[in-house]
Design brief:
This protein is α/β, with parallel strands linked by helices and 453 residues long. It contains 14 helices and 18 strands. The chain has 2 domains: 141 residues, Cytidine Deaminase, domain 2; 283 residues, NAD(P)-binding Rossmann-like Domain (Rossmann fold, 3-Layer(aba) Sandwich), CATH 3.40.50.720. Helices cover 34% and strands 25% of the residues. The radius of gyration is 24 Å and the shape is globular.
Length: 453
Amino acid sequence: MTQLQYEALRAHLFPGDGREAVAILLCGRRCGDSRHVLAVRDIHAVPHGTCTVRTPTGVTWPTDVIDSLLPDVIDKNYAVVKIHSHPVELRSFSKTDDASDDAIFSSIANLAGNASLHASVIMMPSGELIGRTIADGQTVGSLSSIMVVGDDLIIWQSDRHSDSEEFSLRHRQAFGGGTTSLLRSLSVAVVGCSGTGSFVVEELARLGIGRLVLIDSDHVEEKNLNRIVNSSKEDAYLSAYKVHALARAIARMGLNQQVRVLPSNLLTQEAILAVAECDIVFGCTDGAESRHILNRIAAFYCMPYIDVGVRLDADGHGGIAGISGAVHYLQPGLSSLLSRGVYSMAQVEAEGIKRTNPELYRQQRGEGYLRGVQEDRPAVITINGTFASLAVQELLARLHPYRNQPNSHFAYIGGNLAEMQIYAEPESEPCPVFKQHVGRGDVTPLLDLPGLL
């Protein structure tokens, strides 16, 4: 869920009177092969005054609120999540909770006519959330994790193992065992595995991220060897996929991580759904079209998205006009790369035409209807490494806030190496293009984009 959703829930569930309260969440889904993800779409707070009983240990409320939500549950396959407060700090479901969940979710299963996964969640006075999954009216297990995507990334897990691995000792000394254990449990997608992406992959792997999904359709070429970490002349000779070269490097580390490689364009259903199963996504691509898709994924599936880009302006003869880069931290429902002016819809359209109809692209560009798609630029490994490290550090700062100022001050971090300046900007106005899609999850067509492969 988003930070704004979480704050609204906490205000409703703990109004200050010491008595239980309840709300119903409608959630979009990512029905994956390895994970089932629920993304909060709508909050339906049950008014305190309509509850017939509200005590510190119980709440009775009119369940007809569920009836009005059933069309979305049936037609859109939304999940129902019942969330209520435990003011007395009981960190488990009570017998009263069991009876309530049995009645509510059995009714939903009967009326909706399917065995889709739903959930029940408790909020503690501290704000901590714990939950369990329910299918066909029966409890089937615990929610493995609950994430609030905001200025900070807050994650509660039902079963976090203590981190005692020797390779992460120095990380534990810096960030503590709680953070290193959390890193081990995360699933992270990296889209774009070239200059900046290869550095991001290298650093995430050595930080101990438990599962990495690597997406890039390009092969290693000799001209890439100046900047792709862990690539070799043999990779270029064999025209190996970049994702395969990086996966082999991770395997050589021997840190017992899961790696999924997709040597494909992001604009495929397989790639998009693979990203949507992850906890976090890094965008390491200069393309407007791919950035637009990543913004959509982050909105539909309520994910944090970290984007990194580098620009080096040179004359080709040793003269450098500028060296700059940027790291964007993007929250679903707030500003986007589009609203921040990183790309335009005209650029997205031009790239789409070039990808699907190169002849039409050449024609329309020649006639002045399209601006040209960005071609290859100069690239230097040290510059890529600098900004890639800032991007990975941004993830650490969100998981383990350590900066002297709140994370809300750092939605954007820019750097000008010619002037040796690093500067930050706070969050700006929400982007209306993406805000409307937060929490929709799996839809047909995927991401509301009929042209996906």
